[in-house]
Amino acid sequence: MSDTPIKIIHRATWIGSIANVGLALLKITVGKMTGSQALVADGVHSFSDLVTDTAILIGSRYWTAPADKGHPYGHGRFETLTNIFIGVLLAAVGIGIGWDAASALGHTAPTIPGMMAFWAALASILVKEALYRWTVVQAKRINSRSLHANAWHHRSDALSSLPVAIAVIVNWMVPGLHYLDQVAALIVTAMIMKAAFDILWPAILELTEAEADTDVESQIQKYASEVPEIKEVHAIRSRRTGSTILLDFHLLVDPDMRVEDAHTISEEFKSHLLNEMAEVVDVIIHIEPFTCAERIVNPCCDDKSCD
Fold first, then answer.
1. How is the beta sheet containing 280-289 ordered, strand by strand?
2. Taking a C-beta distance cutoff of 8 angstroms, is the pair 120, 27 a contact?
3. Which one Pfam family would you cite for this protein (predicted)?
4. Domains of the chain (ranges plus CATH)?
5. Region of residue 2 (left: phi > 0; alpha: psi -120 to 50; beta: else)
6. What is the rounded distance in angstroms from the CA atom of residue 20 to the CA atom of residue 148?
């Protein structure tokens, strides 16, 4: 029996959580021992992942639930809210780390972290990059945007450890480069803020009812052109709810066609779209006659040259 989406989400999240706890403790402890502010900041970043993991574990119980009377369009927006929470938390962590690093520049005696900090940062890079790649595969299996966002949280942790490792090596080779560790912490901040934006922006667009994807309309027109009975498709609207897309559009058929036949064509076309477009979960089709009054994509001409 194949795993359900919620089982895949929970397994991927729990594995990530265990890794986050171990790496956070390692980086904070080693950072304190070696005097690396950047490594301590990176460890705090890893601990912040635990909060997002908890949000996913709780939120997934809601957004994977089927549509009901209270939520006839499903519960996908719970996933959107989870993504916003992840993005806001990530941004808050980045701002805190950046503030501490900027405050230390010129006001705190520069330190040269020991080589142990390099090995801790390297371990984080390897483990978190592996977690990112594995979590992305799991996210694609079930088409989960939140799980994909959490995967990028893993990668942001891996990327944020990179300048820490470089700073330790450069400081070890050239001790005279003061405040390099604080500069590395600021680079970590920039990477975290970029990851937060990449998670937040799509979620904000979704809440403002932005178009789901730019290529949705072209896909529908392509499939419609393959059905001779469909004369035209227009007024295509799409919106995203979590990891799913809802569609509605007008479908034009021969005005002399029976209502029953037109309905059959629309139902078959709807089934085709649901099968071919993985993220689409519901389609509402408004049937119209292919007359001059209704045609938009292929309007009538007075001289009949474009009929």
1. 232-241, 244-253, 280-289
2. yes
3. Cation_efflux
4. 5-207 (1.20.1510.10), 216-289 (3.30.70.1350)
5. beta
6. 17
Query: Distance between CA atoms of 114 and 15, rounded to whole angstroms?
Result: 30
pLDDT score for 110? 54
Q: What is the mean pLDDT of each run of 10 residues along the chain (307 residues)?
A: 77 89 89 80 77 80 75 76 83 80 64 76 90 90 80 79 79 71 76 82 79 80 90 87 83 91 92 86 89 81 55
SS3 state of residue 285: strand
DSSP run (H or E) holding 222: helix 216-225
In sequence order, what are the beta bridge partners of 251? 233, 287
CB atoms within 10 A of CB 126: 12
- β-strand partners of 283: 247
Q: Are 54 and 16 in contact (CB under 8 A)?
A: no
Q: Which amino acid is at 263?
A: H
* Predicted pLDDT at 171: 74
Q: How, if at all, do strands 280-289 and 232-241 pair?
A: unpaired
> Would you state the pLDDT for residue 203?
84
Residue whose structure tokens are 């009377």: 69
Q: Are strands 244-253 and 280-289 parallel, antiparallel or unpaired?
A: parallel
